[in-house]
Amino acid sequence: MTDRARALDALAAADAVELRAVLLGICASPAWAEAVAAARPWRDRRALLDANAAAVAALSTADLQDALAGHARIGAPGAGDAAAEREQAGVRAADRALLDELHRANAAYEARFGHVFLIRATGRSAATMLAALRERLPNDPATETEIVRDELRRINNIRITRLLDGA
């Protein structure tokens, strides 16, 4: 049995309290955590990632807000938020002017949509994320909600994969 398979088996065998804590560390939505937990045992990694996709797709508006509340603003990961710091590593090299513009664009986005701008930041530069933010700002709320769901699914996939890979 591979280390990856052992990690998946250990996660699937975790007691309900421990599993909930682990899952909420991936996604802050209690409804998401409950749906993913209810899908166990996962026969393999793909089944767990499929459970993530199904759970994200089923989130109500309030549940999606719960998930978004667990994400730091792009360019402003919270102190001690290792996941956000790791995922937003591409922001570290940005100069002050770019960070200020990112801050202004984030504020405009939040004013328009009522939540943080969510994007899979892993491997992206600050300039790339700012361009995506500007591109998405004119979206209507329904379109943006579906983009946010897809970004959340992708972020959760990355976090699940990191967990299973022991990274």
Automatic annotation (TrEMBL):
Top-rank lineage group of the source organism: Bacteria
Aminoacyl-tRNA synthetase keyword on record: no
Q: Which Pfam families does the entry mention?
A: OHCU_decarbox
Q: Which UniProt keywords apply?
A: Decarboxylase, Lyase, Purine metabolism
Coiled-coil segments on the chain, per record = none
Annotated Oxo-4-hydroxy-4-carboxy-5-ureidoimidazoline decarboxylase domain residues = 14-160
Q: EC number(s) for this protein?
A: 4.1.1.97
Pathway note: Purine metabolism; urate degradation; (S)-allantoin from urate: step 3/3
Gene3D superfamilies attached to this UniProt entry = Oxo-4-hydroxy-4-carboxy-5-ureidoimidazoline decarboxylase (1.10.3330.10)
| Protein's name in the database | 2-oxo-4-hydroxy-4-carboxy-5-ureidoimidazoline decarboxylase
